């Protein structure tokens, strides 16, 4: 069955009577609005993994542009309806979202601090974030980052104090602590490769 466009409301089968009834209360979404919210949530969640806040914000933005004269109460209700639908369909789970995003980010060279900040921006609760980032090894991630940037043990030419300071500043901007940044910057290539060889992932082969 082809995926429905998010702007196509699902058929209610009530001949429009349900919408007429709902229209009496401007604080509640109409049947057409609810059908659209459900359809739009399904469309978005089928395309990519989202956090609850991401979905709610997307529904709010689209609803304001789609329905003329919609009230803030209706907008909020549509967002809540979409989130509830996603949960019921088991397509919306902030804990799973955080775990998947954190694991992927850590393997690609992101620091615990950077990952936590990004998850917080997506509306993930602090307790969920702390659990998700707990598996990230900052030393390993810093080595992966160094390899991408040709820093430390992966330099292509001899380094001097100025170059090392630039590298340390870059590690800091990525959320790595000073001690980890300095350790990686002064690490030999053999040491770095030994650490990466422990539990290698597909990202380590890049």
Largest sheet: number of strands, sense, barrel closure: none
Q: Report how far the terminal alpha carbons are from each other.
A: 37 Å
Q: Percent helix among the residues?
A: 55-70%
Shape from CA axes?
elongated
The share of residues in extended strands comes to: under 5%
Please report the total strand number as a whole number. Answer: 0
Structural class by SSE content: mainly alpha
Q: Which regions are unreliable across 5 or more consecutive residues at pLDDT < 50?
A: 8-24, 202-206
**What integer value in Å does the Rg equal?**
24 Å
Query: How many H/I helical runs?
Result: 11
Report the mean per-residue pLDDT as an integer: 87
- Counted up, domains total 3
Structural overview:
The chain is about 65% helix and about 0% strand. With about 210 residues, it is mainly alpha-helical.
